[in-house]
Amino acid sequence: EPQIQLRALRKIYPAKGADVVALDGIDLDVPRGAIHGIVGRSGAGKSTLIRCLTLLERPTSGTVTIDGQELSGLPEAKLRSARRRIGMVFQHVNLLDSRTIAGNVAYPLEIAGVPRAQRASRVAELLELVGLADRADAYPAELSGGQMQRVGIARALATEPAVLLCDEPTSALDSATTRQILGLIRDLRDRLGITVLIITHEMAVVREICDSVTLLGHGKVVEHGALGDVVGKY
Ligand code: ADP
Ligand code: ADP
Fold first, then answer.
1. Per the database record, which ranges form the ABC transporter domain (predicted)?
2. Whose CA is nearest to atom 21 of ligand 1?
């Protein structure tokens, strides 16, 4: 059973004149432990796909199933805990400036109601995992862009998600730092067996890290397949 499964996913934004069909029947299967890329130009529907995948926005029709659970069928009250199965990594990490690195990583655990003693050991483990154990007491302002993204990744992994959803994770980074962060993501997949979905407008990112790729255009799947089969054409 695939870890991420989308079936006939549609999202229509009503508008005066013609409605906007942002997603026009997306089918997607991502197996457990894969690193899958979603690529497309601006306006292709990438952001809408992310919002629908996490049910931040209700799809107009179709289903979203993550880790065997159909999120699109859940009532709002059950979505909050179901979303903990999805770790989100953003282009802009948005750390809390008044909290230390450890405090930022602890934040989702506090929200989830994890007791203090457990939080401390989990945070230490997460910082070790992303190579920032020695920066636990630093503040965000003291970090480089690459270090901030490491914190973002540690924060995303805090609740032990089944899926890591990365939205343009390296678009704000230079090429050397991009390579380091993508290397870290691959390493985490290898060590944790987590399933990774990377949304990007950069084909170079896909080439560097993805096993398989979906090319999105005008809300439709234009191409889908193993990295070599899809990327070779572009
Ligand atoms: P991408 O992230 O690939 O740039 P988006 O998902 O943002 O693409 O947009 C896909 C299409 O849906 C675009 O035509 C965009 O203008 C439209 N769209 C996105 N969000 C909204 C919204 N909230 N209301 C109306 N139209 C939207
Ligand atoms: P953009 O694509 O506009 O540059 P991002 O990819 O950083 O922005 O963020 C996409 C969406 O996720 C935005 O709606 C933003 O408000 C939200 N977001 C970004 N960072 C975080 C965060 N750390 N925690 C929660 N939501 C965030």
1. 4-234
2. 13
Decide whether any atom of ligand 1 lies within 6 Å of the 20 Cβ.
yes
Strand order in the sheet with 69-70: 20-30, 4-13, 61-66, 69-70
Is 234 close to ligand 1, i.e. is its CB under 6 Å away?
no
Q: Which of 92, 97, 148, 167 to mutate to test the pocket of ligand 2 (most atoms within 8 A of CB)?
A: 92
Tokens of 81: 């805990």
- Decide if 155 contacts 123 (C-beta within 8 A): no
Q: Ligand 1, residues 13, 53, 57, 167: which to mutate, most atoms within 8 A of Cβ?
A: 13
Pairing between β-strand 61-66 and β-strand 212-217 as defined by DSSP bridges: unpaired
pLDDT of res. 100: 98
**Residues 135-159: tens digit of each pLDDT:** 999 999 999 999 999 999 999 999 9
CA–CA separation, 90 and 172 (whole Å): 10
Q: What is the DSSP string of 39-108?
A: E--TTSSHHHHHHHHTTSS--SEEEEEETTEEGGGS-HHHHHHHGGGEEEE-SS----TTS-HHHHHHHH
pLDDT for 47-81, tens place per residue?
A: 999 999 999 999 999 999 999 999 999 999 999 88
Give residue for tokens 């987590």: 194
Q: Which ligand is closest in space to the CA of residue 167?
A: 2
